[in-house]
Design goal:
By secondary structure, this protein is α/β, with parallel strands linked by helices. The chain contains 6 helices and 20 strands. The structure holds flavin-adenine dinucleotide and NADP nicotinamide-adenine-dinucleotide phosphate (NAP).
């Protein structure tokens, strides 16, 4: 059954924010503090990717803070400023000019302006065994699953911040963590790289990709690794495989708006405005270089303010 929340019932929203990661929560905070009637729609737990992060060391004001703790600190003040929260998975947005219609799986909302803050989702490797052993040794979240791999030898795939930082985290549990990277140089920030190089539990296999993940029908027991320079194949025994090969934007509900680039990231100007008047985008879902909590928060503030100006 679909419930309609229209202007005559719930009251027309000034702004709806989709996604309550750091970008969406900040946008909602700024909009509500400008006295705009603000609705925040989230399909999971408030906090977004912060909920999957063990320790955050690069958010100003904290030496180090646990991801879900920072998520809660951002979420807590929202109600005080009048942000309405609702659980919902947004499946479609229809642009009717001055009014935008937002459809979740079981409700329809109307708003004068919209801020998209849906973030991005981890990419798959698409190799043999990955889907078969998902949840049985193949994981995309060290914080969620790391503790299940005590004293195991693990493979981490990727060379970015996520792969290297999560490999370091996994050494708390694993006996050995091997990072498999397709080049001979990491992409991760230097400070994170140096920590990994110093960690005695971490080994590297360079210029290589995982070609297959295999197991004993119950759990993962190893991977086949291919050297991309020599094409040589090697079997490496492993109790688990953590995959961190980048992100894809969550933009399917907005396809009809035609606001993305060819890779699916939403294009905005410096004021977070998309090509559609009254629709803004912030955070990881944007086409940009630096995907961080600080940038997400900054863009959320800009969009919250720009929405106010737009409605004026
Ligand atoms: P997200 O945090 O991804 O939030 C998006 C929200 O939108 C989610 O809650 C999602 O459920 C919701 N959503 C998506 N689609 C829908 C829909 N259709 N309907 C309703 N809701 C929807 N950055 C740092 O600065 N420091 C770090 O230490 C750090 N560590 C990281 C570790 C890992 C493993 C990863 C993956 C990222 C890390 N990052 C870190 C990056 C940082 O987490 C992101 O840049 C940041 O969370 C982006 O914020 P966001 O609000 O744009 O998106
Ligand atoms: P990323 O930066 O895009 O890195 C993806 C890595 O996977 C790259 O090393 C890439 O190799 C490799 N890769 C991509 N496709 C592959 C494939 N098919 N097979 C094998 N390897 C493949 O993604 P991320 O590390 O998940 O980071 C996402 C964003 O979150 C970034 O903006 C990052 O800065 C941010 N983040 C920040 C922190 C922090 O600040 N502490 C922590 C985590 C994440 P190449 O290098 O060869 O391209």
């Amino acid at each position: 059954m679909i419930y309609r929340f229209l202007a005559t019932e719930q009251g027309m929203y000034d702004v709806i924010v989709i996604g309550s990661g750091p970008a969406g929560m900040t946008a909602a905070l700024y909009a509500a503090r400008s006295d705009l009637k603000t609705l925040l729609i989230e399909r999971g737990a408030p906090g977004g990717q912060m909920n999957n992060t063990a320790e955050i060391e690069n958010y100003p004001g904290f030496n180090s803070i646990i991801g879900p703790d920072l998520a809660y600190k951002m979420y807590e003040p929202l109600a005080r400023f009048g942000v309405e929260n609702v659980y919902g998975d947004v499946v479609e947005v229809i642009n009717q000019g001055a009014i935008k219609v937002v459809k979740t799986e079981d409700a329809i909302y109307e708003t004068k302006a919209l801020i998209i803050a849906t973030g991005a989702v981890h990419r798959h490797l698409n190799v043999l065994g990955e889907a078969e052993y998902a949840g049985r040794g193949v994981s995309y979240c060290a914080v969620c699953d790391g503790a299940f791999f005590r004293e195991k030898e693990l493979i981490v795939v990727g060379g970015g911040d996520s792969a290297v930082e999560e490999a370091i985290y996994l050494t708390r549990f694993a006996s050995k963590v091997t990072i498999v990277h397709r080049r001979d140089e990491l992409r991760a920030q230097k400070i994170i790289q140096e920590r990994a190089f110093k960690n005695e539990k971490i080994a590297f296999i360079w210029d290589s990709v995982v070609d297959e993940i295999y197991g004993n029908d119950k759990v993962v027991t190893g991977v086949k690794i291919k050297n991309v320079k020599t094409n040589e194949m090697t079997d490496v025994p492993a109790g688990g495989v953590f995959i961190y090969v980048g992100l894809d934007p969550i933009t399917k509900p907005f396809e009809a708006l035609e606001i993305t680039d060819n890779a699916g990231w939403i294009v905005t100007d410096n004021e977070m405005k998309t090509a559609v008047s009254g629709i803004f985008a912030v955070g990881d879902v944007r086409a940009k270089d630096l995907r961080q909590i600080t940038t997400a928060v900054g863009e959320g503030g800009i969009a919250g303010y720009q929405v106010y100006k737009y409605l004026q």
